[in-house]
Amino acid sequence: MSESTTKFVIVGYDGSEGANRALEWAADDAARRGVPLRIVHVLAPWPYDIPRYAPDVFEDGAGRMLSQAEETARKRHPELEVSTQVISGQPAKVLREQAGAEATVVLGSRGLGGFAGALLGSVSTHVATHAHGPVVVVRPREGTARNEIVVGVDDSPESEPALAYAFEQANLRGATVRAIHAWQLPLNAYAPEITYDLDEIRKAQQQVITDRLAALRERYPNVAVSEETPSAHPANALIDASSSADLVVVGSRGMGALGSILLGSVSRAVLHHAHCPVAVVRS
């Protein structure tokens, strides 16, 4: 299994409360990894190409905002290599393109343009859904954290990058991996003429998670791991577990009709309803 491909951490920044939380998360992650932090602000074009102000007015304001963000990151981690960048374009498209093979992109759950009451901003949703690299959406954490990384496990190849990322995060933080493989009986299981051996089903589900984690346990022998196989909907199990976690890690699943990488229903539900930051990881 190869080492982490994260060579730098990028955070999308617009000065909002959510962006400030994302900045702190990104700075901490970059410092733990020993890689540079890049703080990016995207200057979106004015609707209908109306030049309301001269472009340099926006750029000067963005530059001052990024200077303050850079100062915040350097105060948090004086040894951290930090750079800033102003990019013109559509925020969702620009930030999606930033999430390449060697970068992790970190975003707040909602920026300055979010609607009141929205669970997740449109930019964060788009980037997490379509980006090809790891994307972390930093939600306000609720409850008491327990130095724990929660990760969803299934028997698909798509879960492997998420598992590797979860173990890597736990190793960097000295945290525990809480691996959850939730399962449900088929709908016809409740037909009286069909019988199921629940003990055998539970054993089979336990074997799934044990097999999936074997190589990572060997690679990270110092990471403590707990395995759970609840009979529950996977999204509900992960969302419930997020209330005591530092991070929930999920994979992605499936390809759209036009070739876009899309989120599975479980990952999307966790992204919108988790009580802590969520990492969406794909190979």
Give the % helix.
25-40%
What's the number of domains? 2
Strand line-up in the sheet with most strands:
3-2-1-4-5-10-9-6-7-8
> What is the percentage of strand-forming residues?
15-25%
Order of helices and strands: EHEHEHEHEEHEHEHEHE
Q: How would a textbook summarize the main sheet?
A: 10 strands, mixed
Number of helices: 8
InterPro entries: Rossmann-like_a/b/a_fold, Universal_stress_UspA, UspA
Protein name: Nucleotide-binding universal stress UspA family protein
Domain UspA: 9-139, 148-282
Family: Belongs to the universal stress protein A family.
What does this structure look like?
With 283 residues, this protein is an alpha/beta fold. The protein folds into 2 domains: 1-140, 3-Layer(aba) Sandwich (Rossmann fold); 141-283, Rossmann fold (3-Layer(aba) Sandwich), CATH 3.40.50.12370. 39% of the residues lie in helices and 18% in strands. It has 8 helices and 10 strands. The chain has helices at 17-33, 55-76, 91-98, 122-130, 159-173, 198-219, 234-241, 265-273; strands at 8-12, 37-43, 82-88, 103-108, 135-138, 148-152, 176-180, 225-228, 247-251, 278-281. It has a 10-stranded mixed sheet with strand order 3-2-1-4-5-10-9-6-7-8, sandwiched between helices. Strand 9 (247-251), helix 8 and strand 10 form a beta-alpha-beta unit. Helix 3 (91-98) runs parallel beside helix 4 (122-130). The relative contact order is 0.14. Mean pLDDT is 83; it is low at 112-119 and 254-262.
